[in-house]
Amino acid sequence: MPLILTEEQTMLKEAADGFLAEHAPITHLRQLRDSRDPDGVSRDLWRAFGEMGFAGVIIPEEHGGSGLGAVEAGVVAEALGRTLTPSPYFGSSLLAARILIDAASAEQQAAWLPRIAAGEAILSLAVDEGPKHQPSRIVTTAERSGNGFKLNGAKGFVLDGHIADALIVAAKTEGGTTLFLVDPKTAGIEIERTVMVDSHNAARITLKDVQVDADAVIGAVDGGENTMYAALDLGRACAAACLTGAGDEAFRVTTEYLRTRKQFGKAIGEFQALQHRAAHLFTELEIAKAATLAALQRLDAGADQADLAVSIAKAKAGRVAELAVQEAVQMHGGVGMTDEYDVGLFMKRVRVLNELLGDAGFHAERIARAGGY
Known about the structure:
The protein is globular, with a radius of gyration of 21 Å. By secondary structure, the chain is of the alpha+beta class. The mean pLDDT is 92. Strand 9 and strand 10 form a beta hairpin. The protein has 11 helices and 10 strands. The chain has helices spanning 7-23, 26-34, 43-52, 70-83, 89-103, 106-117, 225-260, 272-301, 306-332, 343-355, 360-370, and strands at 123-126, 141-145, 148-155, 166-173, 176-182, 189-195, 201-213, 217-218, 262-263, 266-267.
Protein backbone atom coordinates (compact mmCIF):
# COMPACT_ATOMS: atom_id res chain seq x y z
CA MET A 1 0.00 0.00 0.00
CA PRO A 2 1.54 3.39 -1.01
CA LEU A 3 2.58 5.47 2.00
CA ILE A 4 1.01 8.62 0.64
CA LEU A 5 -2.31 10.36 1.22
CA THR A 6 -5.06 10.14 -1.37
CA GLU A 7 -6.38 13.28 -3.03
CA GLU A 8 -9.35 13.37 -0.63
CA GLN A 9 -7.12 12.87 2.40
CA THR A 10 -4.81 15.61 1.20
CA MET A 11 -7.79 17.96 0.90
CA LEU A 12 -8.78 17.10 4.48
CA LYS A 13 -5.22 17.80 5.63
CA GLU A 14 -5.24 21.20 3.96
CA ALA A 15 -8.64 22.01 5.46
CA ALA A 16 -7.59 20.99 8.98
CA ASP A 17 -4.27 22.82 8.79
CA GLY A 18 -5.93 25.94 7.43
CA PHE A 19 -8.76 25.93 9.95
CA LEU A 20 -6.50 25.51 12.97
CA ALA A 21 -3.93 28.00 11.71
CA GLU A 22 -6.69 30.59 11.46
CA HIS A 23 -8.87 29.77 14.48
CA ALA A 24 -6.54 28.05 16.94
CA PRO A 25 -2.90 29.03 16.45
CA ILE A 26 -0.45 28.73 19.34
CA THR A 27 -1.68 32.08 20.64
CA HIS A 28 -4.97 30.29 21.37
CA LEU A 29 -3.17 27.92 23.74
CA ARG A 30 -1.39 30.83 25.37
CA GLN A 31 -4.65 32.71 25.88
CA LEU A 32 -6.34 29.75 27.56
CA ARG A 33 -3.28 29.19 29.75
CA ASP A 34 -2.67 32.80 30.75
CA SER A 35 -6.35 33.55 31.48
CA ARG A 36 -6.55 30.41 33.65
CA ASP A 37 -9.64 29.36 31.75
CA PRO A 38 -11.66 27.00 34.01
CA ASP A 39 -12.34 24.56 31.16
CA GLY A 40 -8.95 24.74 29.50
CA VAL A 41 -10.61 24.30 26.11
CA SER A 42 -12.85 26.46 23.97
CA ARG A 43 -16.34 25.04 23.60
CA ASP A 44 -16.95 27.46 20.72
CA LEU A 45 -13.95 25.98 18.93
CA TRP A 46 -15.21 22.46 19.67
CA ARG A 47 -18.58 23.32 18.09
CA ALA A 48 -16.75 24.78 15.10
CA PHE A 49 -14.82 21.50 14.92
CA GLY A 50 -18.16 19.79 14.63
CA GLU A 51 -19.37 22.14 11.91
CA MET A 52 -16.21 21.43 9.90
CA GLY A 53 -16.76 17.68 10.22
CA PHE A 54 -13.57 17.11 12.23
CA ALA A 55 -15.26 16.10 15.50
CA GLY A 56 -17.20 13.34 13.76
CA VAL A 57 -14.47 12.18 11.42
CA ILE A 58 -14.92 8.45 12.21
CA ILE A 59 -18.60 8.61 13.22
CA PRO A 60 -20.96 7.04 10.65
CA GLU A 61 -22.97 9.37 8.46
CA GLU A 62 -26.28 8.11 9.90
CA HIS A 63 -25.19 9.64 13.21
CA GLY A 64 -24.12 12.95 11.72
CA GLY A 65 -20.45 12.13 11.18
CA SER A 66 -18.19 11.91 8.16
CA GLY A 67 -17.86 8.13 8.18
CA LEU A 68 -14.14 8.21 7.46
CA GLY A 69 -11.31 6.07 8.76
CA ALA A 70 -8.18 6.00 10.88
CA VAL A 71 -6.01 7.73 8.27
CA GLU A 72 -8.36 10.71 8.19
CA ALA A 73 -8.50 10.74 11.99
CA GLY A 74 -4.71 10.84 12.01
CA VAL A 75 -4.66 13.72 9.54
CA VAL A 76 -6.72 15.82 11.97
CA ALA A 77 -4.55 14.72 14.92
CA GLU A 78 -1.41 15.77 13.06
CA ALA A 79 -2.89 19.21 12.47
CA LEU A 80 -3.63 19.52 16.19
CA GLY A 81 0.01 18.67 16.88
CA ARG A 82 1.21 21.48 14.65
CA THR A 83 -0.79 24.14 16.52
CA LEU A 84 -0.73 22.59 20.03
CA THR A 85 -4.48 23.15 20.20
CA PRO A 86 -6.20 22.00 23.43
CA SER A 87 -9.21 20.01 22.24
CA PRO A 88 -11.46 17.12 23.37
CA TYR A 89 -10.69 15.43 20.06
CA PHE A 90 -8.74 12.48 21.47
CA GLY A 91 -11.11 11.67 24.30
CA SER A 92 -14.38 12.24 22.44
CA SER A 93 -13.88 11.84 18.69
CA LEU A 94 -11.41 8.95 18.88
CA LEU A 95 -11.46 6.89 22.08
CA ALA A 96 -15.09 7.32 23.15
CA ALA A 97 -16.50 7.39 19.63
CA ARG A 98 -14.64 4.20 18.63
CA ILE A 99 -16.05 2.34 21.64
CA LEU A 100 -19.58 3.57 21.03
CA ILE A 101 -19.43 2.71 17.32
CA ASP A 102 -18.07 -0.77 17.96
CA ALA A 103 -20.09 -1.91 20.96
CA ALA A 104 -22.78 0.48 22.20
CA SER A 105 -26.49 -0.19 21.98
CA ALA A 106 -28.62 1.64 19.45
CA GLU A 107 -29.97 3.84 22.24
CA GLN A 108 -26.48 4.72 23.49
CA GLN A 109 -25.28 5.51 20.00
CA ALA A 110 -28.30 7.69 19.23
CA ALA A 111 -27.86 9.57 22.50
CA TRP A 112 -24.18 10.43 22.10
CA LEU A 113 -22.70 9.96 18.62
CA PRO A 114 -24.65 12.81 16.95
CA ARG A 115 -23.73 15.15 19.81
CA ILE A 116 -20.05 14.25 19.57
CA ALA A 117 -20.11 14.76 15.80
CA ALA A 118 -21.73 18.17 16.24
CA GLY A 119 -19.19 19.26 18.85
CA GLU A 120 -21.96 19.54 21.42
CA ALA A 121 -20.81 16.82 23.83
CA ILE A 122 -17.52 15.85 25.43
CA LEU A 123 -16.87 12.25 26.49
CA SER A 124 -13.81 10.83 28.25
CA LEU A 125 -12.40 7.33 28.53
CA ALA A 126 -11.21 6.39 32.03
CA VAL A 127 -8.70 3.52 31.80
CA ASP A 128 -5.34 4.38 33.36
CA GLU A 129 -4.87 4.03 37.10
CA GLY A 130 -1.16 4.16 37.88
CA PRO A 131 1.70 6.48 36.97
CA LYS A 132 2.17 4.62 33.66
CA HIS A 133 -0.19 3.36 30.97
CA GLN A 134 -1.02 -0.26 31.89
CA PRO A 135 -4.51 -1.15 30.64
CA SER A 136 -3.93 -4.82 31.45
CA ARG A 137 -3.66 -3.99 35.16
CA ILE A 138 -7.03 -2.39 35.85
CA VAL A 139 -8.06 -2.81 39.48
CA THR A 140 -11.22 -0.70 39.50
CA THR A 141 -14.07 -3.10 40.25
CA ALA A 142 -17.69 -3.38 39.24
CA GLU A 143 -19.74 -5.65 41.50
CA ARG A 144 -23.32 -6.60 40.84
CA SER A 145 -25.69 -4.59 42.99
CA GLY A 146 -29.48 -4.53 42.64
CA ASN A 147 -30.38 -4.25 38.97
CA GLY A 148 -26.95 -2.89 38.07
CA PHE A 149 -23.41 -2.53 39.33
CA LYS A 150 -21.45 -0.71 42.00
CA LEU A 151 -18.13 0.81 40.88
CA ASN A 152 -15.11 1.36 43.13
CA GLY A 153 -11.66 2.55 42.15
CA ALA A 154 -9.62 5.50 40.92
CA LYS A 155 -8.56 6.66 37.46
CA GLY A 156 -5.89 9.08 36.29
CA PHE A 157 -4.89 10.82 33.05
CA VAL A 158 -8.56 11.01 32.00
CA LEU A 159 -8.41 13.42 29.06
CA ASP A 160 -10.68 16.44 29.68
CA GLY A 161 -12.49 14.43 32.35
CA HIS A 162 -13.24 17.58 34.36
CA ILE A 163 -15.63 18.83 31.65
CA ALA A 164 -16.96 15.51 30.38
CA ASP A 165 -20.68 15.13 29.79
CA ALA A 166 -20.24 11.36 30.17
CA LEU A 167 -17.47 8.98 31.19
CA ILE A 168 -16.66 5.58 29.76
CA VAL A 169 -15.18 3.66 32.68
CA ALA A 170 -13.27 0.40 32.31
CA ALA A 171 -13.68 -1.88 35.33
CA LYS A 172 -13.04 -5.48 36.32
CA THR A 173 -16.07 -7.73 36.62
CA GLU A 174 -16.23 -11.40 37.57
CA GLY A 175 -15.20 -12.74 34.18
CA GLY A 176 -13.22 -9.96 32.54
CA THR A 177 -13.30 -6.25 31.72
CA THR A 178 -16.56 -4.34 31.31
CA LEU A 179 -17.11 -0.83 29.95
CA PHE A 180 -19.68 1.45 31.58
CA LEU A 181 -21.24 4.68 30.34
CA VAL A 182 -21.45 6.82 33.46
CA ASP A 183 -22.90 10.24 34.26
CA PRO A 184 -20.09 12.19 35.99
CA LYS A 185 -22.68 13.75 38.32
CA THR A 186 -23.57 10.36 39.80
CA ALA A 187 -23.23 10.17 43.58
CA GLY A 188 -19.84 8.85 44.68
CA ILE A 189 -17.80 10.33 41.82
CA GLU A 190 -15.11 12.90 42.64
CA ILE A 191 -13.28 14.67 39.81
CA GLU A 192 -10.09 16.69 40.15
CA ARG A 193 -8.79 18.67 37.20
CA THR A 194 -5.06 18.28 36.52
CA VAL A 195 -3.51 20.91 34.27
CA MET A 196 -0.57 19.17 32.65
CA VAL A 197 2.85 20.62 31.93
CA ASP A 198 1.80 21.37 28.33
CA SER A 199 -1.28 23.34 29.51
CA HIS A 200 -3.61 20.63 28.23
CA ASN A 201 -6.10 18.99 30.55
CA ALA A 202 -6.72 15.69 32.24
CA ALA A 203 -8.45 14.63 35.44
CA ARG A 204 -8.17 12.27 38.38
CA ILE A 205 -11.44 10.48 39.04
CA THR A 206 -12.37 8.61 42.19
CA LEU A 207 -15.33 6.23 42.24
CA LYS A 208 -16.70 5.21 45.62
CA ASP A 209 -19.76 2.95 45.65
CA VAL A 210 -20.99 4.47 42.39
CA GLN A 211 -24.30 2.82 41.53
CA VAL A 212 -25.13 2.40 37.83
CA ASP A 213 -27.99 0.56 36.14
CA ALA A 214 -27.50 -2.44 33.90
CA ASP A 215 -28.21 -0.32 30.82
CA ALA A 216 -24.99 1.60 31.54
CA VAL A 217 -23.00 -1.38 30.25
CA ILE A 218 -21.47 -0.87 26.81
CA GLY A 219 -21.54 -4.14 24.89
CA ALA A 220 -21.46 -7.34 26.91
CA VAL A 221 -20.60 -7.80 30.56
CA ASP A 222 -17.03 -9.18 30.79
CA GLY A 223 -16.61 -8.52 27.05
CA GLY A 224 -15.14 -5.03 26.95
CA GLU A 225 -11.43 -5.81 26.63
CA ASN A 226 -11.24 -6.18 22.84
CA THR A 227 -13.41 -3.10 22.35
CA MET A 228 -11.19 -1.11 24.69
CA TYR A 229 -7.98 -2.22 22.99
CA ALA A 230 -9.33 -1.36 19.53
CA ALA A 231 -10.08 2.17 20.73
CA LEU A 232 -6.69 2.46 22.43
CA ASP A 233 -4.88 1.41 19.25
CA LEU A 234 -6.72 4.07 17.25
CA GLY A 235 -5.79 6.61 19.91
CA ARG A 236 -2.16 5.47 19.91
CA ALA A 237 -1.82 5.74 16.15
CA CYS A 238 -3.36 9.20 16.20
CA ALA A 239 -1.10 10.20 19.11
CA ALA A 240 1.80 9.17 16.85
CA ALA A 241 0.35 11.43 14.14
CA CYS A 242 0.06 14.27 16.65
CA LEU A 243 3.70 13.70 17.65
CA THR A 244 4.84 13.87 14.02
CA GLY A 245 2.86 17.08 13.59
CA ALA A 246 4.45 18.65 16.66
CA GLY A 247 7.93 17.44 15.70
CA ASP A 248 7.57 18.60 12.11
CA GLU A 249 6.39 22.07 13.15
CA ALA A 250 9.21 22.40 15.69
CA PHE A 251 11.60 21.50 12.87
CA ARG A 252 10.03 24.08 10.55
CA VAL A 253 10.29 26.81 13.19
CA THR A 254 13.91 25.87 13.84
CA THR A 255 14.99 25.87 10.19
CA GLU A 256 13.41 29.30 9.82
CA TYR A 257 15.42 30.47 12.82
CA LEU A 258 18.59 29.02 11.30
CA ARG A 259 17.99 31.07 8.16
CA THR A 260 17.48 34.37 9.99
CA ARG A 261 19.69 34.21 13.13
CA LYS A 262 23.17 35.59 12.41
CA GLN A 263 26.41 34.98 14.22
CA PHE A 264 29.91 36.07 13.20
CA GLY A 265 28.31 37.92 10.32
CA LYS A 266 26.56 34.94 8.72
CA ALA A 267 23.32 32.98 9.16
CA ILE A 268 23.88 30.13 11.60
CA GLY A 269 22.19 27.82 9.10
CA GLU A 270 25.36 28.09 7.00
CA PHE A 271 27.36 26.25 9.66
CA GLN A 272 27.94 22.71 8.46
CA ALA A 273 27.48 21.10 11.88
CA LEU A 274 23.96 22.50 12.15
CA GLN A 275 23.19 21.50 8.57
CA HIS A 276 24.16 17.90 9.34
CA ARG A 277 21.95 17.82 12.43
CA ALA A 278 19.03 19.33 10.53
CA ALA A 279 19.43 16.83 7.67
CA HIS A 280 19.49 13.91 10.12
CA LEU A 281 16.36 15.17 11.85
CA PHE A 282 14.56 15.61 8.52
CA THR A 283 15.18 11.98 7.56
CA GLU A 284 14.04 10.75 10.99
CA LEU A 285 10.82 12.75 10.73
CA GLU A 286 10.09 11.26 7.32
CA ILE A 287 10.58 7.74 8.69
CA ALA A 288 8.26 8.49 11.62
CA LYS A 289 5.60 9.86 9.26
CA ALA A 290 5.81 6.75 7.09
CA ALA A 291 5.55 4.41 10.10
CA THR A 292 2.54 6.35 11.39
CA LEU A 293 0.72 6.35 8.06
CA ALA A 294 1.40 2.63 7.68
CA ALA A 295 -0.13 1.95 11.09
CA LEU A 296 -3.23 4.02 10.32
CA GLN A 297 -3.65 2.27 6.96
CA ARG A 298 -3.37 -1.16 8.60
CA LEU A 299 -6.04 -0.20 11.12
CA ASP A 300 -8.37 0.80 8.29
CA ALA A 301 -7.65 -2.43 6.45
CA GLY A 302 -8.16 -4.57 9.55
CA ALA A 303 -4.79 -6.14 8.74
CA ASP A 304 -3.08 -8.79 10.80
CA GLN A 305 -0.72 -7.40 13.44
CA ALA A 306 -2.06 -3.88 13.01
CA ASP A 307 -1.57 -3.49 16.75
CA LEU A 308 2.16 -4.07 16.36
CA ALA A 309 2.34 -1.53 13.54
CA VAL A 310 0.66 0.92 15.90
CA SER A 311 3.25 0.24 18.61
CA ILE A 312 6.09 0.71 16.14
CA ALA A 313 4.61 4.03 15.03
CA LYS A 314 3.99 5.31 18.56
CA ALA A 315 7.48 4.38 19.75
CA LYS A 316 9.22 5.77 16.66
CA ALA A 317 7.18 8.98 16.51
CA GLY A 318 7.76 9.58 20.21
CA ARG A 319 11.51 9.22 19.99
CA VAL A 320 11.78 11.32 16.82
CA ALA A 321 9.54 14.09 18.16
CA GLU A 322 11.65 14.13 21.32
CA LEU A 323 14.76 14.53 19.17
CA ALA A 324 13.05 17.29 17.17
CA VAL A 325 12.17 19.41 20.18
CA GLN A 326 15.55 18.85 21.82
CA GLU A 327 17.32 19.96 18.67
CA ALA A 328 14.95 22.90 18.34
CA VAL A 329 15.78 24.15 21.82
CA GLN A 330 19.52 23.62 21.38
CA MET A 331 19.67 25.30 17.98
CA HIS A 332 17.77 28.28 19.37
CA GLY A 333 20.29 28.54 22.16
CA GLY A 334 19.30 29.72 25.64
CA VAL A 335 16.27 31.63 24.34
CA GLY A 336 14.74 28.33 23.27
CA MET A 337 13.50 27.65 26.79
CA THR A 338 12.07 31.12 27.36
CA ASP A 339 8.30 31.53 27.12
CA GLU A 340 8.74 34.13 24.41
CA TYR A 341 9.63 31.39 21.92
CA ASP A 342 7.23 28.60 20.97
CA VAL A 343 9.77 25.78 20.84
CA GLY A 344 9.59 25.27 24.60
CA LEU A 345 5.84 24.73 24.28
CA PHE A 346 6.45 22.03 21.68
CA MET A 347 8.88 20.29 24.04
CA LYS A 348 6.25 20.21 26.79
CA ARG A 349 3.56 18.90 24.46
CA VAL A 350 5.80 16.14 23.13
CA ARG A 351 6.61 15.02 26.69
CA VAL A 352 2.90 14.60 27.45
CA LEU A 353 2.09 12.92 24.13
CA ASN A 354 4.91 10.45 24.73
CA GLU A 355 3.22 9.32 27.96
CA LEU A 356 -0.27 9.28 26.45
CA LEU A 357 -1.43 5.69 25.80
CA GLY A 358 2.02 4.25 26.38
CA ASP A 359 5.55 5.57 26.04
CA ALA A 360 8.28 4.11 23.83
CA GLY A 361 9.22 1.61 26.55
CA PHE A 362 5.66 0.31 26.83
CA HIS A 363 5.39 -0.22 23.09
CA ALA A 364 8.85 -1.76 22.75
CA GLU A 365 7.88 -4.31 25.40
CA ARG A 366 4.58 -4.94 23.62
CA ILE A 367 6.44 -5.74 20.40
CA ALA A 368 8.96 -7.93 22.23
CA ARG A 369 6.26 -9.95 23.99
CA ALA A 370 4.42 -10.47 20.70
CA GLY A 371 7.67 -11.88 19.31
CA GLY A 372 7.96 -14.36 22.13
CA TYR A 373 10.65 -12.61 24.16
